[in-house]
Specification:
The model has no long low-confidence stretch (mean pLDDT 92). The protein starts with a strand and ends in a 7-residue tail after the last helix. It has 219 residues and is α/β, with parallel strands linked by helices. Helix 2 packs parallel to helix 3 and helix 3 packs parallel to helix 4. The longest helix is centred in the middle third of the chain and has 29 residues. Strands 2-1-3-4-5-6 form a 6-stranded parallel beta sheet, sandwiched between helices. Helix content is 46%, strand content 13%. The relative contact order is 0.16. Strand 4, helix 4 and strand 5 form a beta-alpha-beta unit.
């Protein structure tokens, strides 16, 4: 079992890589030093490197993302939009596009690491919300485009990487009364990697935040 995890040096990405490795997967965890995934050339180069080093691909996890910085709508710049959509939407597409032949051969799986921001309007994170909504749609589009050989699923985390001192406030926003962890997201990825009759859908891992939160609530 061979997996490429983009964003593999971040808190969530590294937890995913570690969980897969403990389950017996061979994993290439890619970080910023492995190229700009919004650039087709870099995306292709990373996939070919992973396929060569691992001997093929059975799983692609698109966990790379940028641009999660609060800023009023009136102050958003073109650069902010480029950053938000870069690795999150463009990168997820181009890496999956490059990986598709390998995944078709192995009848593998793609997991997009989405965000509940795709389903909630957060005024201070307009570009991030839009980019995550685009990524969530790619989950469905690519599931249709790559079927039946390749499954494409999403995991939409809520508060799982909370800043120190924010735990109590974030916990109150969930139905379960606690914040999650990167390992909660990793467990969902591991489930979807083996869920052979699941495709084109997103698993929300937020402790019930989407049900509890008022519209527009900030993260």
């Amino acid at each position: 079992m061979r997996a490429l995890v983009t964003g593999g040096s971040g808190r969530v990405g590294s937890a995913i890589a570690s969980t897969l490795e403990r389950a017996g997967w061979s994993v290439l965890a890619a970080g910023r030093s492995d190229g700009d995934l919004a650039v087709v050339r870099d995306a292709k180069r990373l996939v070919e490197r992973a396929a060569a080093e691992l001997g093929g691909l059975d799983l692609l996890v698109n966990a790379a993302g940028e641009g999660f910085v609060p800023k009023p709508v009136e102050e958003l710049t073109e650069e902010d939009w480029e950053l938000a959509f870069g690795a999150t939407a463009k990168g997820s597409f181009f890496v999956t596009q490059a990986a598709a032949p390998h995944l078709r051969e192995s009848r593998g799986c793609v997991v997009m690491i989405e965000d509940v921001a795709a389903f909630q309007p957060w005024p201070s994170f307009a570009a991030h919300c839009a980019a995550k909504a685009a990524q969530a749609m790619l989950t469905r589009v690519l599931a249709r485009a790559l079927a039946p050989e390749v499954r494409v699923c999403g995991v939409a985390p809520g508060s799982v990487a909370v800043e120190p001192g924010q735990e109590e406030r974030r916990a109150a926003e969930t139905l379960l009364g606690r914040v999650g962890s990167p390992e909660d997201v990793a467990a969902a990825v591991a489930y979807l990697a083996g869920a052979e009759f699941v495709t084109g859908t997103s698993l929300v891992v937020d402790g019930g935040r989407l049900l509890q939160s008022a519209p527009g609530l900030q993260p």
